[in-house]
Amino acid sequence: MGSLGARTNGTSSPNHVEIPVHANTNNVVEPKPTLGVEESNIDYSQRAQWLRAAVLGANDGLVSVASLMMGVGAVKEDITTMLISGFAGLFAGACSMAIGEFVSVYTQYDIEMARIKRERKGNNNNNINEVNEEAQREKLPNPFQAALASALAFSVGALVPLLAALFIRNHKIRLAIVVVAVSLALVAFGIVGAVLGNTPVTRSCFRVVIGGWIAMAITFGLTKLIGSAGI
């Protein structure tokens, strides 16, 4: 008040202290951006193109070859017969999976290409069509990649029961080791598929393990029954 009074009277008091008042209109403090966790934009539909072939191929190789070996082991105690049947299942299954996946994906590729060509004919802007067509071609699944992934994955899965039985001479212990090894591998494949596909891990593991046990049990039981009947 002293400063204001002195200025009003046109005089200045030597003892007063002037407190400058600054306008803060230009010193606006912008709010800091809140720190958050950025959500990953993973395209799981694109990942599924090779994930489906790889995971399904590994599970098929594991379950089918293990079931084949369990079926042979139900009537034959000879380890050589069991291993030969397992390797035959590996070779036949890998070729079958590769050919089937190639035909399936190539059919899907032809269907998508036909759709792209129809869209190009229906659009008069050729430049835009060429750009869009090139982008859509890059997103299409590769039949050769799917076939190779399926064959390799099947072979990897099939090797698990073969390696588990390779050095076990006792017949009953060999069968038990195969079941344990296959069960652990099924759990591992279930976890990998769930993590990469962003699906529940427990449900995925439970599904593949129970399915594998059922396949081995049915094959073992029916083969044992046929062998006991003397067919």
From TrEMBL:
TM ranges: 79-99, 146-168, 175-196, 208-227
A Gene Ontology biological process term: intracellular manganese ion homeostasis
Protein name according to UniProt: Vacuolar iron transporter
Similarity comment text for this entry: Belongs to the CCC1 family.
PANTHER family for this protein: FE(2+)/MN(2+) TRANSPORTER PCL1 (PTHR31851)
Highest rank taxon of the organism: Eukaryota
Function of the protein: Vacuolar Fe(2+) uptake transporter.
Species assigned in the record: Lupinus angustifolius (Narrow-leaved blue lupine)
Polar residues bias locations: 1-15
